Amino acid sequence: MTDTAPRPTLEAVAARAGVSRATASRVVNGGDGVREPLVARVRRAVEELGYVPNQAARSLVTKRHDAVAVVIAEPETRVFADPFFALQLRGISKELTAHDNQLVLLLVEGRDDHARVGRYLAGGHVDGALVFSLHLDDPLPGLIQHAGVPTVFGGRPDWSGGRSEALYVDCDNREGAREAVRHLTGLGRTRIAHITGPLDQTSAADRLDGFRDMMADADPQLVVESDFTPAGGERAMRELLERRPDLDAVFAANDLTAAGALRVLRESGRRVPEDVAVIGFDDVLPVAEQTEPPLTTVRQDIEEMGRLMARLLLRRLGHRAVAEDAEGAPSSVVLPTTLVRRASA
Amino acid sequence: MTDTAPRPTLEAVAARAGVSRATASRVVNGGDGVREPLVARVRRAVEELGYVPNQAARSLVTKRHDAVAVVIAEPETRVFADPFFALQLRGISKELTAHDNQLVLLLVEGRDDHARVGRYLAGGHVDGALVFSLHLDDPLPGLIQHAGVPTVFGGRPDWSGGRSEALYVDCDNREGAREAVRHLTGLGRTRIAHITGPLDQTSAADRLDGFRDMMADADPQLVVESDFTPAGGERAMRELLERRPDLDAVFAANDLTAAGALRVLRESGRRVPEDVAVIGFDDVLPVAEQTEPPLTTVRQDIEEMGRLMARLLLRRLGHRAVAEDAEGAPSSVVLPTTLVRRASA
DNA sequence: GTGAAAGCGCTAACAC
DNA sequence: GTGTTAGCGCTTTCAC
Q1: A5 in a domain, yes or no?
Q2: Chain B residues 41-100 with CB within 8 Å of chain A
């Protein structure tokens, strides 16, 4: 254990500046109501001593932590294949950093790990939580609700029960899906298949709904459920080709799925987009730009969504610097999507 | 702001159990030296009240935080394309969780952001740090050294200056590279190219060294520097094909690079592995299994490396439960690699 | 506007 | 073994 010199305390700063601890504290916290000369002296003392406030002591009295938990409720491997989460994290990190909040990462490690996360959240160690990738049966929202931790969800949570006051950030999955199908039909395609995501997630369910909006009387055989992974996309595509070898387009629920589908189509000797047009969802660059051919896809601004989640939470927490640029109570946001044309459709 | 009921304090627990605060504290912290009946009573009180220790109050006196910072010093986009970091995070998270430590994620947001991270680390908000993907000119090690925060690095840091006491976890990049080349020569290939990673990172430099160990008198034209990204791999592969259209094998410094190279090779009409054998490094499944053809690669156990980093740090911090299963001072570890044969070589 | 003083909830000596 | 007590470093009334 390194024997670090003890950090200077506020006391030391106050002494050096020749003021009381109270005044030093005021300056450190913005300096409102302290006369200029004193402010300057304290600032200089802080500088010279390299003073950094002790967050524990501060939290003890303020009951705030300036820390937010990011919960990734995906025990499975998806998180580790999809740049999606990394991008959201980036957006979240930027926003939190800009407002001096720390990011405590909570990865759900398995089926039985929700309790631990719930306990942590209930423990009041963080001011709020940002929660991702809930599935329908997830116990987390319940635990969170119970713990009373201010929370913003990534993606519309579906507690069909109600509790519509839940704050979330999502993209317009349904309209995005419609746009994808519209594009395909615009290309003259008529036998359009859809490979869904896991339907216990609202994002996947909404995209399916959007697909159906446009293809109300399509052959139900043309829809197959999958899981947002490339391997799942491959399996689904094989199934689809078996059922309807004459299909001429595929709308995959995300880019990873599309990548898998593309591979199977190539194996089967079909040309993309000539024989089969393919369109994805997300526009995760490392995937969409790297497929063969590059993927036409529905773009959502993932990093921005992360940023918005953080901002919403900070507002909810009454963070001044964030609250001022928007009036009224924070409310959920649904971002629009845009179609990005590349070569696959 | 939700008006949560104030959390019960130790005081409340003690009162309910009919003991002093000190005894209640002892029980909460393991219960050593407290007689059984009392232990039970306190435990019950904790249970009934739903008591959770106030971490801020605890830290204030213990000067420990049971929290570790994970610093990702990659301002660029690589983090978001490569499942590498996500996998390490997973390993780290598991180990930290197992020992009741929290993970505070610090993403370096840009070229000028090191100072912020340094300040945070110096602020004594965490007990230690886990630091990734340093580049040669990175100011972070200096800042960390200065701050005196116990740290374990992911990948051997290169401060050619010395300070060999730095703790790190790495895989045997050099021997792994040798193994890759050995495999290629074993396949009868003689004109073997190498696409490196960014050579200001030791992992990339070590792999290059390993390559040179085996190919001492190869045409220097056969080595081209790249950046661990698919796009970089493509560029490098094009360059290589221009310089030496007769090459018959490529050792790419990581899987992502190999994926890019594969694409260019295909475009150029070459068959893999018949015309050109390709081998990667990492064995990141979502990449290596999904390339066309599936990638032969040098595997490193990324998640395990994450776990080891966390364990090492915890030991360094004197964490009891971790210290006991290994004697002596913790020291850096270099894990072996293994060759995974798939179709590309 | 500034300072004095009272804790925030907890652990760790130190008595008993 | 168990209780008493003294802070940890900070913010925040409340006087002045």
Answers
A1: no
A2: 50, 52-57, 59-60, 65, 67, 70, 79-81, 83, 85-87, 89-90, 93-94, 97
User: Is B267 among the domain residues?
Assistant: yes
Whether B2 maps to a domain, the answer reads no
The number of beta carbons lying within 10 Å of the beta carbon of residue B15 is 16
Strand C lies under 7 A from the Cβ of residue A61? yes
Give the pLDDT confidence score for residue B147 in this predicted structure: 84
B12 interfaces chain A, CB cutoff of 8 Å: no
**CB contact B115 to A (< 8 Å):** no
A198 & A297 share domain: yes
Residue B60: CB less than 7 A from any atom in strand C: yes
Å from A284 to nearest chain B CA?
9
Dist CA B329 CA B239 (whole Å): 48
Determine the structural domain holding residue B38 and report its residue range: 10-62
A43 CB contact with strand C at below 7 Å: no
Nearest residue, CB atoms, B93 vs list A93, A109, A259: A109
> Of all helices (H) and strands (E), which one includes residue A143?
helix A140-147
Q: What is the pTM of this model?
A: 0.93
What is the tally of structural domains in chain B? 3
Residue A233: pLDDT band with limits 50, 70, 90: very high
Would the pLDDT of A324 be above 60?
no
CA of B54: nearest nucleotide by C1' is C9
**Residue B102, pLDDT score:** 96
Share of residues in chain B with pLDDT > 70 (%): 93
Listed as ranges, the nucleotides of chain D within 7 A of a protein C-beta are: 1-5, 7-13
pLDDT higher than 80, residue A6: no
- What is the per-residue pLDDT for A2? 45
CB proximity B180 to A under 8 Å: no
Render pLDDT for A40-76 as a digit per residue (tens, 0 to 9).
999 999 999 999 999 999 999 999 999 999 999 876 6
Q: Where are the alpha helices (DSSP H) in chain B?
A: 10-17, 21-28, 36-49, 55-62, 83-98, 114-122, 140-147, 173-186, 202-214, 230-243, 255-267, 285-288, 302-316, 320-323
Kindly report, residue by residue over A118-171, the tens digit of the pLDDT. Answer: 889 988 899 999 998 788 888 888 888 888 899 999 999 886 555 567 899 999
The per-residue pLDDT for B1 is 43
Parallel, antiparallel, or unpaired: how do β-strands B249-252 and B333-335 relate? unpaired
Pairwise CA distance, residues B310 & A156, whole Å = 34
Query: CB distance B104–A107 less than 8 Å?
Result: no
Do B51 and B45 form a contact (C-beta atoms < 8 A)? yes
A324 and A241 within one domain:
no
Chain B residues with CB under 8 Å of A316 CB are 1
CATH number at residue B32: 1.10.260.40
Please check whether residue B46 is in contact with residue B28, taking contact to mean a CB–CB distance below 8 angstroms. yes
Which residues in chain A are closer than 8 Å to B150, comparing Cβ atoms?
Answer: 1-2
Q: Residue B251's domain is classified under what CATH number?
A: 3.40.50.2300
Tell me the pLDDT band of B290, cut-offs 50, 70 and 90.
Answer: confident
